[in-house]
Amino acid sequence: MDLVPALDEPLKQPLKSVLGPATAKVMAEHLGLHTVGDLLHHYPRRYEERGQLTHLADLPMDEHVTVVAQVADARLLTFASAKAPRGKGQRLEVTITDGSGRLQLVFFGHGVHKPHKELLPGTRAMFAGKVSVFNRRLQLAHPAYELLRGDGEEAVETWAGALIPIYPATGKLESWKIGKAVQTVLPSAADAVDPLPDSLREGRGLLPLPEALHRIHRPHTKADIADARARLKWDEAFVLQVALARRRHADTQLPAAPRRPKPDGLLTAFDDRLPFTLTDGQQKVSQEIFADLATEHPMHRLLQGEVGSGKTLVALRAMLAVVDAGGQAAMLAPTEVLAQQHHRSITEMMGELAEGGMLGGSEHATKVVLLTGSMGAAARRQALLDLATGEAGIVVGTHALIEDKVQFHDLGLVVVDEQHRFGVEQRDALRGKGKQPPHLLVMTATPIPRTVAMTVFGDLETSVLDQLPAGRSPIATHVVPAADKPHFLARAWERVREEVEGGHQAYVVCPRIGDEEDDPKKAGKKKSPEDEAEKRPPLAVLDVAEQLAGGPLRGLRVEVLHGRMHPDDKDAAMRRFAAGDTDVLVATTVIEVGVNVPNATAMVIMDADRFGVSQLHQLRGRVGRGSAPGLCLLVTEMPEASAARRRLNAVAATLDGFELSRIDLEQRREGDVLGQAQSGARSSLRVLAVIEDEEVIAEARQEAAHLVAADPELERLPGLRTALDALLDEEREQYLEKG
């Protein structure tokens, strides 16, 4: 029988458990720890210091101290209190002395039993706790203590000076019990296989893995902790970057049809009819994309840019290049509203170039079709036919594009808009529709700090558009504290009226639709203190629209738009607003992405504290899209000192989406971001913080690329292969495969 490697040994086994079976069960169920290795990688969250040994004669107030002393006397007293009105309350008072002075210890309630038995006069022990004053006398309440048997000078020093690890724990298993369990398995750390190549580890002066594990769980000094964390951060960054580098390498081995545009084809005809010149950024990014499309392996590129930086135009030019080269291009949008919007703006930008096979169509023209779930049967049949025959060069759709019935003549490029809204499986299904793997361009309007892009989308090459096209106007953003200053809210509605009287339009955004039943499941959830303070449900589109139309915006044309309307009604509402037939559109976040109405100059976001930083930035990008300046008002009832208000102030203070995404990430921690991106798998990062450890990630990416180029199968590094297998359990492996 094969021996189980030490770190893979299950904590819970039928015959002999490493830990008690009850402890092992709780660890598996509540902390996801199944093996000795899992437990060794469950690092302390922080460390408590018991404090250095102190003489009783010079105890400092309000500080944690550790003293060695002898029990002089101990008395158990009973007293009456609110909790024990019949004189059943118990208090144990113990006086200790170390020759330099005396100190009283007190224990109450159920906590008296153990010390009453153990702390007998003459007993010598170490006591640790916080010094307080009671009745003008110094005391320690409920101190931790360790009895000293024999002389034990060494024991005194180690116990007192120790840094006590505090572990992420659960109600079912306290930190000190986890600490004891770690102590049990710590000898196995000697068998930990080091994933870092020796040359890398030695070159960067990093600890060997067994030593790092020892120091993080049993540090003698703060320097031990720092050294251990520095080493373990490298493990996390490097193993993840190797996984991504191997995927990039594997992609370069796949075949793809190169797609080069014809010299005087569709792309040239399109560029000739543009009424403006491309920004330098758009030209640079287009060149990067065209260079990728011309190669014989699939492009994998992330195009990220500020709200309104012209990503759609860059993507459209890439699609036209592929059509020019005889292929088809598909654009996948997350919602029907957005798919319709993209289809409309693409056909408008292309004009007669989008009328392939029709009277009046240009000689270079192709057909641009829309495919969504709610289309009528006849229109859907025609769209499917156009795709199968190759008549349609470009298709814009929702996940209806992924269904089995959809067949392409020759799919050459997939453009995914708003990457974070699509599951990996959906992207993979669409990529599987090409005869060879199609090129992939992923767009996101939520700017991502470089380090996050390297960690989450590290298998994609990244292009960034950070310039706004000429003619885009600045947006002024202000926080409107509706509870503290109600007249500010009244002024907000006056400003909306002024914009409309100036010939412009406005959005009002609310967190909820308003016709939903209250969900009993949600009602039972624990609320945060801010939610508790905010008893009322979030404001709803239907209620707010009614109040505005009958109140501060009486006489203006107010309409609603939300996700539960019939798709035709949504489209009609959007068209009326785009045509200027509606003054104020009261909507949910369906307008968050891609909606383009240059005449809309004002936006009021109700209950703005209920939205995330990136979402507010997205929403704000819907105004100021024309030549008139934009105005965005963030309405909140949160008090000035709250975290929510700080978040809103940050949004009001900058228009830089990359800066805001950093703030957002620092506040939320990256678990959310990585969780979203890693197919819902638990974030594998325990000590690595994506924003703080920017340098480590960048250096790890470089090292990983060199290593994989030299040894793609990692044949010379069995330790690294083992670590990769642990990181890429089956779910993640599939996730990375599909990417």
Please characterize this protein's 3D structure.
This protein is of the alpha/beta class. It contains 27 helices and 21 strands. The strands form four sheets. Strands 11-12-10-13-14-9-15 form a seven-stranded parallel β-sheet, with helices on both faces. It has a six-stranded parallel β-sheet with strand order 16-21-20-17-19-18, with helices on both faces. It has a five-stranded mixed barrel with strand order 2-3-4-6-5. α7 packs across α8, α8 crosses α25 and α9 (266-273) packs antiparallel against α11 (311-324). The protein is globular and about 105 Å long. Mean pLDDT is 81; it is low at 517-534, 670-683 and 730-739.
Tell me, rounded to a whole number, the average pLDDT: 81
Task: Supply the number of helical segments.
Answer: 27
> Major sheet: order of its strands?
11-12-10-13-14-9-15
Low-pLDDT runs: 517-534, 670-683, 730-739
Please state the CA-atom Rg, rounded to the nearest Å.
Answer: 32 Å
Tell me the total number of β-strands. 21
C-alpha geometry: globular
**Share of β-strand residues:** 15-25%
Helix content: 25-40%
Q: Roughly how many Å apart are the termini?
A: 38 Å
- Name the structural class: alpha/beta
Largest sheet: 7 strands, parallel
Attribute tags:
7-stranded parallel beta sheet; 739 residues; disordered C terminus; alpha/beta; 39% helix; single chain; 6-stranded parallel beta sheet; globular
